[in-house]
């Protein structure tokens, strides 16, 4: 509730073209998206773009955090653990899953 604005949450699927995200945020989201698809698809180009914005320590933290969130999401799915409905509490409709490409 102290994080991203409602506008950012609503624009997440269009992060590449949305004015709500900085170049650094776009690079981080591209890494996160690449790590989240199955099979994972993170190119050297994605890493080079992200490295323009983040130190080596920050890159390790970014990739580690994305990996942990993917782990938790898959764990929760396996055990049927539902979200805490943070979006709904804020009065916004959560973004639906992006259709498969």
Q: Helicity level, as a percent range?
A: 40-55%
Number of helices: 5
Largest sheet data? none
Helix and strand element order: HHHHH
Total domains, how many?
1
- The CA-CA distance between the termini, in Å, is 31 Å
Q: Which percent range describes the beta-strand content? A: under 5%
Decide which structural class fits the backbone. mainly alpha
The coarse overall form would be: globular
Mean pLDDT: 87
Q: Which residue ranges are poorly predicted, with pLDDT under 50 across at least 5 consecutive positions?
A: none
Radius of gyration, taken over Cα atoms and rounded to an integer in Å: 14 Å
The number of distinct β-strands equals 0
Q: Gist?
A:
By secondary structure, the chain is mainly alpha-helical.
What would your notes on this structure say?
The protein is mainly alpha-helical. The protein has one domain. 54% of the residues lie in helices and 0% in strands. The chain has 5 helices and no strands. The chain has helices at residues 6-10, 23-36, 44-51, 56-79, 86-89. Helix 2 packs antiparallel against helix 3 and helix 2 (23-36) crosses helix 4 (56-79). The longest helix has 24 residues, at 56-79. The protein is globular and about 35 Å long. The termini are far apart. The model has no long low-confidence stretch (mean pLDDT 87).
Secondary structure layout plus pairing:
Blueprint: H1 6-10, H2 23-36, H3 44-51, H4 56-79, H5 86-89
Note the main attributes of this structure.
globular, mainly alpha
